[in-house]
C-alpha cells in the first residue's frame, strides 16, 4: 500500500494485517527495540541485531509513509539532569521501554554494554531533540531489561525483568512522574513466577494484567492480575480460545480490548493475533499468519495511531530466524462495549461465572438459572468474601431493563403478526391455507416467548431480593477485600 493516498487506512479490511509500502529507505532490521506513537508518528529506538545493540532513533510518518532518522544532541543545562553522569548521546540499548510524557519521550531500562547497578531513565525532548538522563530519587530499582512498563495516570508501574547478571525478577515498582520518585509496591497473594519479555496492560485504571513471558527454561501463557487498590495478586482463568506459551510478544490496548501480537518459544514464532476482552477475560484469535511471517516474531513492537478518528495498529520489526524491518498495519473492527465489567479473585470465581453466564444468556433470550441459584445459596451462607453487592444489584437492574425491552419487542412482533394476518385475509382471498397457517403458527409462538420473558423477569426480581438479603449478611461477615466492579 503506497503513500500516494493519505487516507490509505480507510481501504484496509477489518482485522487483517497489511504490509506498508514505504517511501525511501527503511531503518535497519532489529528486534527488542522500543516503540511509541506521538500524534501520527511512530518512534523506534534501539534494539539489537546480530548480537549488537543499536542506539538510533527512527521516525515513521504514518501520513506520508516515510521513514527518517532523529538526530539527537546533548544539552548541558536541563532540569532533572544528573550531573554525575557522563554526557553522551542515547546509549545502545535492547529490551527497554519507551513512552510519551509531556513533550518528551522517556526510555526506561534495557540492556546495554555499560552495566549499571540502578535503572536509568533517559529522555528525548521532542521539540529540541536534546537527550539526557532524568534524575530519579527514592527506592530506585536495580537495572534490568525485558520488564513491562504501564502508565496509570501519572504513575508508571514496572513489573519483572532480567538484571545484568541474568537474575529474573517478579517485583513491582512505581515511578511517580510528577516527582520522579521510585517506590516499591508490596502485594499479597501469589505473584507471577519471575519472568521477562512478558507484556502488561491496565484495565479501568485499577487492574494490572500480566500475560506470558518466560524464565530461562519455561515459556508462559498465564494471565495474572494485580488489583492496584487492594494490592492483591490473582490468577483468573482465561475464557475463549486457547493460546500457546510465548515470550517477546507485544500488546496495546484500545478501550476494553487488549491486542497481542507475535512472540515465540525459541523454536517457532506465535502466528496468532490475539485480542483479550479485559472485562470478560475472553481471548479471541483475530487472525493468523504463516510461521515464518515477520508478524510471528519475538521482539516485535506494537503501537496504535489515531488516523481520522480511527485507531490503527502498527507492528514493526522482530526476529523469527530473520531480522525484520517492515511496518504492518491492521484496522481493528469496532467491538461492542462489554457489560458488565467483572474481575474475579479465586474466592469469587464461581460467582463471577454465574454473572457472566447471566449476561451472555440474557442477550440470547434463553436463561438457565441453576448457577444463579447456587450463587444465592453461597451468598446467604455468608462465605466471607466482601463483595460490592450494590454494584451487582445495579448490573441486575440493567439486565431487567434489557428484559423489559425484549418483552416490548415481543409484544410489537405479536401485533405485527396479527396485522399481517388481517391484511392477508382482507387483501388476498386466494392466499393458500398453508401460508395463513404458517403465519398463525408464528403468532401462536409469540405468547410462549412473552411468557418466557415474564418468567425471567420474576426470576431476576427474586435474585435481586436474595442479593439484597445477602448484603445484610455480608456486612456482618469478614473476609477478603476483592470486589466486583460494574461500571
Automatic annotation (TrEMBL):
Pfam families in the cross-refs: ACBP4_C, Kelch_KLHDC2_KLHL20_DRC7
Domain annotation Acyl-CoA-binding: ranges: 434-472
Gene3D superfamilies per record: Kelch-type beta propeller (2.120.10.80)
Keywords tagged on the record: Kelch repeat, Repeat
Superkingdom field: Eukaryota
InterPro entries: ACBP4-6_C (IPR056819), Gal_Oxase/kelch_b-propeller (IPR011043), Kelch-typ_b-propeller (IPR015915), Kelch_1 (IPR006652)
UniProt name for this protein: Acyl-CoA-binding domain-containing protein
Natural source organism: Rhododendron griersonianum
